[in-house]
Write a structure and sequence with these properties.
The chain has about 350 residues and is an alpha/beta fold. The strands form four sheets. Strands 3, 5, 6, 9, 10, 17 and 18 form a seven-stranded mixed β-sheet that branches. The chain has a six-stranded parallel β-sheet with strand order 13-12-11-14-15-16, with helices on both faces. Helix 4 crosses helix 10 and helix 5 runs parallel beside helix 6. The longest helix is centred in the middle third of the chain and has 13 residues. The mean pLDDT is about 95. The structure holds zinc ion (2 copies). One zinc ion binds next to helix 4.
Length: about 350
């Protein structure tokens, strides 16, 4: 089969690799659409723990083969990948905290992913979707679940106010979920005008460009002491520091942007957080019990009732064979984009 293989840091190849047969307890998915995640780009640009690796974890397709012990009823069903492969046996898995599993794998990061004609994965790692759902929308289920999970962690309630810092794909999914769940006011920041325009279309009430306005002052004008919930989706240190003055006393901050590990946070941040009794909450992936969690079923329900707009999230579509060129242009910041779909059939 053809696959997009990360051979080394900055080296991505579209090539022939041995075809996969599903082992016991596994199914094989014939890939119909995959989407490029920021983490795929990071693995390409910064390098990864293992080579060679077929990238991709935002993927949907049709189950065409099943391994020993798996019901033949799966064959022909449409499905999306659930990329986390927990052990289901450790202390954290038993509590339902699957993303804290002591011994997990991850499709497209620790084992072969979805940028291929086929992917083999455990039966528990597919979520069946209705045949009526477009595959490219189903490929975007995973990033939606991350946003939905952030709002669960932040205990978001209808009628609350929220600030979304960063309107990349997670930021845009956050705006959509805040709209769906009934936020009173949704404010979004980004330095890219295009992203802000899409955020407005997706339901943001106010968009702010921090390169043009003082975000803190604007939030004061809108919300006085700050928002109920602030969501960090940029991974930029000074944006992380900015979360506190935007959050009301006793409000919550949920962090999902991966920060550069060579930077530090001043202890004044903790002091200010304590004085305002603000909760700082970490987010890692998108899982809850029972596996994979309501984030996944909520997303499929919102796709089916039309409240989740995936079409506007997609800015580009390419054949899978074009992936090496696409990664090169994104890696050198030459392509302004939202979600990019890779389609194996046009290869
Ligand atoms: Zn992803
Ligand atoms: Zn575990």
């Amino acid at each position: 089969m053809k696959a997009v293989v990360l051979e080394n840091k900055g080296v991505l190849e579209y090539k022939e690799v041995p075809s996969l047969e599903p082992g016991a307890g596994h199914v094989r998915l014939k890939v119909k659409a995959s989407s490029i995640c920021g983490s795929d780009i990071k693995r390409y640009v910064d390098g990864h723990r293992m080579y060679p690796l077929i990238l991709g974890h935002e993927t949907a397709g049709i189950i065409d083969l099943v391994g020993e012990g798996v019901s033949k009823d799966y064959i022909g069903k449409h499905a999306a990948i659930i990329p986390l492969v927990p052990c289901f046996e450790c202390q954290q898995c038993k509590r339902g905290y699957y993303s804290a599993c002591h011994n997990y794998s991850f499709i497209g990061s620790r084992q072969s992913g979805g940028f291929a004609e086929f992917v083999s994965l455990p039966e528990k790692n597919v979520i069946i979707i209705p045949d009526s759902l477009f595959f490219e929308y189903a490929a975007l289920i995973e990033p939606s679940t991350v946003a939905r999970h952030m709002l669960s962690l932040g205990d978001f309630k209808k009628g609350e106010t929220a600030v979304v810092l960063g309107s990349g794909s997670i930021g845009l999914m956050l705006v959509q979920w805040l709209r769906i769940l009934g936020a009173k006011l949704i404010v979004v920041t980004d330095i890219l005008e295009d992203n802000l325009r899409i955020a407005s279309k997706m339901g943001a009430h106010v968009t702010l460009d921090p390169s043009k306005v003082d975000v803190e002052k604007e939030i004061q004008k809108l919300l006085g002491d700050g928002a109920d919930l602030v969501l960090e989706a940029t991974g930029v240190p000074h944006v992380l520091q900015q979360t506190l003055p935007l959050t009301r006393p006793r409000g919550k901050i949920v962090l999902a942007g991966n920060q550069p590990l060579d930077k530090n946070l001043p202890l004044t941040f903790i002091e200010n957080m304590m004085r305002r009794e603000i909760s700082l909450i970490g987010c890692f992936m998108s899982y809850s019990a029972p596996f994979p969690g309501h984030e996944w079923t909520d997303t499929i329900a919102a796709l089916l009732d039309g409240s989740l707009d995936m079409d506007t999230m997609i800015s580009h579509r390419y054949a899978l064979s074009k992936a090496p060129e696409v990664f090169k242009t994104i890696g050198t910041h030459q392509l302004v984009h939202q979600k990019i779909i890779l389609n194996p059939e046009e290869a």
